[in-house]
């Protein structure tokens, strides 16, 4: 195995897979952060870390069952002129679940509907972790199939997955903090998940849409939100300066009256 990682072409493949897993990791981190908001505050960090661990385990499991994953690319069901494979059915089902879940969360967020945490905290965590595991399996399907097209070496795939998981653990708290601190980012995150759900369903029905357009649109939305945050800070600073400018002359007048 050591000789494998001493070859230059191995590192090229590893870098490609690592970048692919990082993109997948962004999707997972956003979804995990949104789902864990349903849990009590003291359980969220543990749930996020367990969710990432389960996501990594699911991807590694798919890598080691690669023959089964590749069999999902064979036609399984024909509806008219449309041939559906096992992969397509998984993408349609997973996309529908993600679309329904994220759409429900977005509606709840926009209408300010208060949600109550489960009275049985353990049951709540289990449900959240199962949802994370199910969606990550759907997310991972394409990445594993793509990885097989790049290399047949399982150690390289596992190394890329584990490396991306380390990055996910390092950024998940920061992403969660930003999403919760700024409402605009949470809205963007939920809309991003809604779009991903729609994309997964479209891919299941053989409607291929370039995901780059979605990522570009979300990146543009993030830049706009950053501009809005900076503008709000500027307005607050201006309002604070104006209030100080009004208060200071009043204090000076009171002092003059007292002296006289």
UniProtKB/TrEMBL annotation:
Membrane-crossing segments per the record: 12-35, 47-70, 82-100, 121-148, 154-172, 184-201, 213-231
Subcellular localization(s) per the UniProt record: Membrane
Organism listed in the record: Photobacterium ganghwense
Major localization listed first in the record, in broad terms: membrane
A Pfam family that the UniProt record links to this protein: TerC
Keyword Lyase part of the UniProt annotation: no
Membrane topology: Multi-pass membrane protein
InterPro entries per the UniProt record, alphabetical: Integral_membrane_TerC
Protein name: Membrane protein
Entry GO CC: membrane
Taxonomic lineage: Bacteria, Pseudomonadati, Pseudomonadota, Gammaproteobacteria, Vibrionales
């Amino acid at each position: 195995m050591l000789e494998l990682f001493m070859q230059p072409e191995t590192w090229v493949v590893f870098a490609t897979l690592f970048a692919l897993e990082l993109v997948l990791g962004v999707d997972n981190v956003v979804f995990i952060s949104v789902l864990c908001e349903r849990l009590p505050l003291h359980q969220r960090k543990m749930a996020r870390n367990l969710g990432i661990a389960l996501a990594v385990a699911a991807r590694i499991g798919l890598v080691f069952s690669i023959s089964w994953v590749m069999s999902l690319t064979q036609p399984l069901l024909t509806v008219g002129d449309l041939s559906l494979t096992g992969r397509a059915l998984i993408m349609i089902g997973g996309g529908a679940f993600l679309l329904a879940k994220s759409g429900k969360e977005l509606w709840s967020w926009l209408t300010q509907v208060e949600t109550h945490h489960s009275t049985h905290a353990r049951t709540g965590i289990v449900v959240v972790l199962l949802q994370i595991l199910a969606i990550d399996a759907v997310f991972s399907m394409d990445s594993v199939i793509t990885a097989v097209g790049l290399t047949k070496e399982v150690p390289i795939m596992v190394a890329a997955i584990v490396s991306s998981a380390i990055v996910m653990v390092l950024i998940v708290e920061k992403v969660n903090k930003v999403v919760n601190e700024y409402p605009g980012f949470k809205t963007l995150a939920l809309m991003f998940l809604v779009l991903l759900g729609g994309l997964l369903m479209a891919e299941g029905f053989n409607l291929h849409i370039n995901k780059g357009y979605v990522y570009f649109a979300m990146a543009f939305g993030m830049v706009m939100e950053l501009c809005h945050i900076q503008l709000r800070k500027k307005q607050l600073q201006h309002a604070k300066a104006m209030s100080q400018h009004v208060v200071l002359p009043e204090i000076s007048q009171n002092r003059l009256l007292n002296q006289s």
